[in-house]
Design a protein that fits this description.
- With 266 residues, the chain is mostly helical.
- It has one domain.
- It contains nine helices and no strands.
Length: 266
């Protein structure tokens, strides 16, 4: 690969992340500008199209080679098995988020998004959890992996306390953010028009935010606290060996081309 092509990689990766973030935000914001949530076929098409397009670009640019693809499939299969054993989780905590966070932290935001999205999709198919909520969960889990990947950029070497603190903080923030995102869909779809509690189109932004805050506190805050705390605890207890193992795999996956020395004949 030429130096020019290599220098374009960060720009292309940033454009990918911006594009999938904008597309994902579209289906969450749709009910605020339309009379209802997008049709299920539209939300499914957008979410699966995001994952497919990102995977195609990653494969085409060789950032997702056969070895990383195999790792991605293995993580998705493990998460599907974990969710099959513990479908509901412990209150809001589910073990599937741990591998998404760690894999994103080690392999970067693009891989993290793919890991979160494919893990959720595989676990939903394994547990029969396919429904109108699936596109929103898929995008939300993808964003969790992306956030962990952004936090882990340029982090190398053996995992230390800083890695665990940073990733635990990401786990806490994304634990609450994921629940709030899913509540936005729930609030604007199933609770649309409920007086004093649900979403009502045309409300001033401050009043709408206050109403959503009351809705979130009443329905999800405690549940999401178990998720955020459980994810952070899992990172603190198990993060170091898993991060180290994934970084060793990453180092084995990387190929460095070194120019041969030019022999100078007298």
């Amino acid at each position: 690969m030429s130096v020019h092509a290599r220098s374009l990689r960060p720009t292309l990766a940033a454009a990918e992340l911006a594009a999938i973030t904008a597309l994902g935000a579209t289906i969450f914001l749709w009910p605020f500008v339309a009379s209802a949530a997008p049709p299920v076929t539209v939300s499914v098409a957008i979410s699966l199209g995001m994952v497919g397009a990102l995977a195609f670009i990653e494969l085409a640019t060789r950032r997702l080679d056969a070895r990383k693809f195999a790792l991605l499939a293995a993580i998705a299969a493990i998460d599907a098995a974990l969710r099959l054993v513990l479908v509901i989780g412990i209150s809001g905590f589910s073990p599937i988020f741990f591998l998404i966070l760690v894999a994103g932290y080690v392999y970067g935001p693009s891989f993290g998004f793919l890991c979160g999205a494919t893990s959720l999709l595989a676990s939903a198919l394994a547990t029969g959890g396919v429904g109108p909520w699936l596109p929103y969960e898929l995008i939300g889990c993808g964003w969790i992996g992306m956030a962990a990947g952004l936090a882990g950029l340029r982090r190398r070497g053996a995992p230390n306390r800083r890695d665990l603190v940073v990733l635990a903080l990401v786990a806490i923030v994304t634990g609450y953010a994921y629940g709030a995102l899913l509540d936005v869909w729930d609030w604007t779809t199933f609770y649309r028009g409920v007086p004093g509690f649900g979403f009502i189109a045309g409300l001033p932004p401050v009043e709408a935010a206050a109403r959503f805050g009351r809705f979130y506190a009443a329905t999800s805050l405690v549940w999401d606290s178990f998720r955020a705390g459980g994810d952070a605890l899992a990172i603190v207890m198990l993060g170091a060996p898993v991060i180290a193992a994934l970084r060793r795999l990453r180092n084995r996956f990387e190929v460095t081309i070194v120019a041969a020395p030019i022999a100078i004949t007298p």
